[in-house]
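> example.struct
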């Protein structure tokens, strides 16, 4: 699927809004070489990380509807996206972090769009389904990926609802 064209069409149709990941997450230091398989409850495997390098972090969303999915974030990117909140780590090394990443443009995949596959920025194919959000960093169009419907609802706040371009 040609995601840039799909995004452009959604913008022309007034279906693009602005959102920000705002809900706290849990994170722990990844073990070097660890591979994180992101699994969404009711869907199965979403994606699989490359082996972790020193300093990379495993992030766990606080979203019961998705099974608290986990994913790997590179060390440098993690520092840009999350800030540690006060509190001790638990016995497994999880600590609470607050997202503070970029505002993201988004549109919701419609039923008529159907399910489709595209390449995520980390090089792996992602499958988007009706109801999912396709999010794109407002300042970096290459940073475009799928967020499962329930994960988007649990972890993002809408800053601007979709509507005609101004």
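> example.seq
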């Amino acid at each position: 699927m040609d995601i840039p064209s799909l995004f452009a069409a959604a913008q022309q149709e007034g279906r693009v809004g602005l959102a920000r990941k705002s809900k706290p997450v849990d994170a722990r230091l990844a073990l070097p070489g660890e591979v994180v398989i992101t699994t969404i409850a009711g869907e199965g495997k979403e994606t699989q990380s490359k082996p972790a390098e020193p300093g990379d972090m495993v992030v766990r969303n606080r979203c019961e509807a998705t099974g608290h999915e986990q994913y790997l974030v590179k060390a440098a990117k993690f520092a840009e996206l999350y800030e540690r909140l006060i509190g001790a780590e638990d016995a497994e090394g999880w600590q609470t972090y607050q997202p503070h990443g970029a505002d993201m443009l988004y549109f919701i995949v419609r039923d008529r769009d159907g399910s489709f596959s595209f390449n995520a920025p980390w090089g792996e194919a992602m499958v988007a389904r009706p109801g999912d959000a396709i999010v794109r960093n407002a300042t970096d169009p290459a940073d475009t990926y799928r967020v499962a419907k329930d994960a988007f609802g649990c972890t993002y706040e809408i800053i601007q609802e979709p509507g005609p371009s101004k």
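> remarks
The first helix runs from residue 3 to 12.
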